[in-house]
Amino acid sequence: MTTYDAGDITLQKIREYVWEIPREGEMNVPARVLASESLLEEISDDRTLEQLKNTTHLPGIRKYAVCMPDGHQGYGFPVGGVAGIDAENGCISPGAVGYDINCGVRMIRTNMAYSDVEGREEELVDALFDAIPSGLGGGGIFEGSRDDIDEILADGVEWALREGYAVPEDLAHCEDEGKRPDADPDAVSQKAKDRGKAQVGSLGSGNHFLEVQRVTDIFDEDVAAEFGLREEQIVVLIHCGSRGLGHQICTDYLREIEQAHQGLLNRLPDKELAAAPAGSHLAEEYYGAMCAAINFAWVNRQLITHQARAVFEDVFDRSWDDMGMELLYDVAHNIAKKETHTVDGEDVELYVHRKGATRAFPAGRPELPPAYADVGQPIIIPGSMGAGSYVLRGGERSLEETFGSTAHGAGRLMSRTEAKNTYWGEDVQDELRDQQHVYVKANSGATVAEEAPGVYKDVDEVVNVSDALGIGDKVARTYPVCNIKG
Fold first, then answer.
1. What is the CATH number of the domain that holds 377?
2. Which residues are part of a known binding site for GMP?
3. Could you tell me which residues are annotated as the binding site?
4. DSSP letter at 413?
5. Are the CB atoms for 15 and 36 separated by under 8 Å?
6. Residue (of 349, 478, 425) closest to 88 by Cα position
7. What's the N-to-C CA distance of the chain in angstroms?
8. Residue 283 domain-assigned?
9. In 145-279, at which residue ranges do the beta strands (DSSP E only) sit?
10. Least confident range of 56-65, 134-143, 169-178
């Protein structure tokens, strides 16, 4: 197959797993989809390709817009989308970041084996569910004053370290060491701060979760050793973001940008791509507010880490330090950051928009923490409750192919409404427990139905595409032991 027809859009096969929508009309650049033929069929089932093509109309977009193998329809900009946009002559788009700013994942390794947990899964999942707030609305591990929230927004995980919720090694193993220095708390509305004030240290709802996992496969023993991973090891995966605060920031700035930059909006094929021109007051304000939300999300995941360590101490009657509960890495997947990339032979500062896409820097990039500078950045790709998750490392071709990015998960096949009409939550829980020995606890059966394994694409195939293209290399695979959800 050299071309693929998806209604009004025809893609040309550039090489294995690389498909291109050629530049035409008002497109500023081509668009590329990284997928196998079967994944491409799933991607073309909704408006993903149309949204990807629309993205190429954004001013200042360079090289090409990219859709990862887990791509699916989003708000204006597809989930799984990556766009590098000139930070001087281009724009920044809140819709190309998403409402859950710095939704991301972190993995905590332990020195425990699966045999240490086997038989105690129900006790552990109940204890985690009781201790870690989840679900819609308020309720977090920490509720502070307005000054506390401003400090969290400005300082990120440095605040958690000062307050006793983190140790220095946590900062050293977090993207950007857990702090975006461009954060501007004054650019965040009071309404956003008030929404976040009661949610610091909470999972939220939807596809967010905390999952205890065991390492089932090692693909690269040398890199796994550098990451501190081995077969049958217990690890903890946390997936959540900036909660109501990030959602409100996106809402606030979309509204303001739509009003202030109507001329630019009128030139775009979809108003959900509303963008502020680089250098404009709103571009600078949104960037500062977004960076503040990034810091908030890192603190959110850090407090959940603190609470998870305490639960493990209670259940297993050992200190978390004795159990080796160290942070492997924390990486964002809804973000736009100023990064320098080589485009057409010159180094250019770009707003790299990654929406449902994970940074995947190879060894040698200055942004990497010293622990991984020589091996490449850890990448964490969660699967569904009934499938494996993966740890990858930044691939050598990622900078050239994807602005240093890869997939962020399995990617949805089914809407939440369709999922609830197809699955019954209690049946899903029973089947996972009885047939796969995976213990799930959630606030409602509807949440479990929305996140049933059948709702998602094949994470193995998504990761295999990443590995084959050299943008994210397979290191290890994990499998769920128990899972808590909102």
1. 3.90.1860.10
2. 207-211, 333-334, 382-385, 389, 408-411, 485
3. 100, 207-211, 239, 333-334, 382-385, 389, 408-411, 485
4. S
5. no
6. 349
7. 43
8. yes
9. 209-218, 233-240, 276-277
10. 134-143
Average pLDDT on 2-17 reads 94
Instruction: Read off the tokens for 332.
Output: 């964002």
Chain-wide mean pLDDT for the chain?
Answer: 95
Which segments are annotated as binding site for Mn(2+)? 100, 208, 239, 333
Alpha carbon of 179 to those of 102, 152, 155, 159: distances in Å? 12, 10, 6, 10
**288-321 pLDDT, tens per residue?**
999 999 999 999 999 999 999 999 999 999 999 9
Q: Which residue has the tokens 């954060």?
A: 183
Query: What's the domain count of the chain?
Result: 1
Q: At 384, list the tokens.
A: 């569904």
Looking at per-residue pLDDT, the higher value among 421 and 254 belongs to 254
Residue 112 resides in a domain: yes
Residues carrying an active site annotation: 408
Domain contains 437:
no
Alpha-helical segments (H) within 317-458: 398-402, 416-422, 425-436, 445-450
pLDDT for residue 164 is more than 90: yes
pLDDT single digits (tens) 82-136: 999 999 999 999 999 999 999 999 999 999 999 999 999 999 999 999 999 998 8
Supply the range of the domain harboring residue 371. Answer: 3-413+456-485
Within-domain flag for 162: yes
